[in-house]
Each structure stands twice: as structure tokens, then as C-alpha cells.
Recover the amino acids of this structure.
């Protein structure tokens, strides 16, 4: 199965106190996740930097041989919004409380890691393009 992340950053930098208190790690936007070209997940207002920071930490562990599940926990919710669940034979299931359908296939580790890294690179480039003070490199230091 193939997975693709597409996003649109909001091009404003929030300055409200609630966001500043979050150490600058907040910029939202729209996120779509496609599985085999079919829309699996859509959120028009996701904290993209928070999601990417957690994904980045998880993907580094996977690249180092770990097979721990990824559980995206948002500061705005009391539940996981997204999970990558390790199954076996280097395959992953994907689950979201907002998923559009129940996947019937699993994602190969290599495919998942490549897609996540493409998303992280594109998001980092987008943050740089809008002159956001924090990039993912700074978040993960």
C-alpha cells in the first residue's frame, strides 16, 4: 500500500498567548493523507508542527531499527488522532479517529519511512518559505 501526505500551511504566524505559551511549536494547516490515491484522513486545521515533530522522533527510531508504534497525541485532544501500528513482517497498519475508511492492506516500513520523510522535508521547506522562526530541525534539538 502507498501513503501520501499533502498539506497546506496557514501562512500567518500565530501570536496569541496560548500559542506563545506552547514554545512556538504551533502552526496549523490542512492535512490530507491518501492511501493508494484514496483520501483516508482530512483535517482542515491540524497543528502541523506538533504532528511533524512527533513523526520526526518516531521515524528516527524506526530508521534505527525500533518498531514502536507511532501515536500522535495532540495538545488539543484527549485521544490519539493518528496511529501507525506495527503488525509483523515489517508492515504497519494506520488508524485515525477521523479516518474515512478502514484500510484492508498494510504499509511496508520502507514505503512509510520514505513518505514520512518526504512530508517532513516539504513541511520544513514550507516553514522556511514563510520565514517561520522554528523549523523542524530546531524542534528536535
Amino acid at each position: 500500500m502507498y501513503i501520501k501526505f499533502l498539506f497546506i500551511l496557514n501562512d500567518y504566524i500565530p501570536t496569541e498567548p496560548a500559542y506563545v505559551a506552547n514554545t512556538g511549536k504551533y502552526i496549523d494547516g490542512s492535512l490530507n493523507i491518501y492511501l493508494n490515491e484514496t483520501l483516508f484522513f482530512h483535517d482542515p486545521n491540524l497543528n502541523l508542527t506538533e504532528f511533524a515533530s512527533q513523526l520526526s522522533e518516531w521515524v528516527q527510531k524506526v530508521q534505527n531499527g525500533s518498531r514502536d508504534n507511532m501515536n500522535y497525541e495532540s495538545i488539543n485532544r484527549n485521544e490519539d488522532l493518528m496511529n501507525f501500528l506495527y503488525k509483523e513482517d515489517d508492515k504497519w497498519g494506520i488508524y485515525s479517529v477521523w479516518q474515512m475508511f478502514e484500510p484492508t492492506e498494510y504499509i511496508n516500513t520502507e514505503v512509510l519511512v520514505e513518505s514520512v520523510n518526504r512530508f517532513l522535508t516539504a513541511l520544513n521547506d514550507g516553514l522556511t518559505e514563510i520565514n517561520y522562526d522554528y523549523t523542524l530541525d530546531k524542534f528536535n534539538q
About this structure: Helices lie at 17-20, 48-63, 109-129, 136-139. Confidence is low (pLDDT under 50) at residues 17-23. The first strand starts at residue 3 and ends at 9.
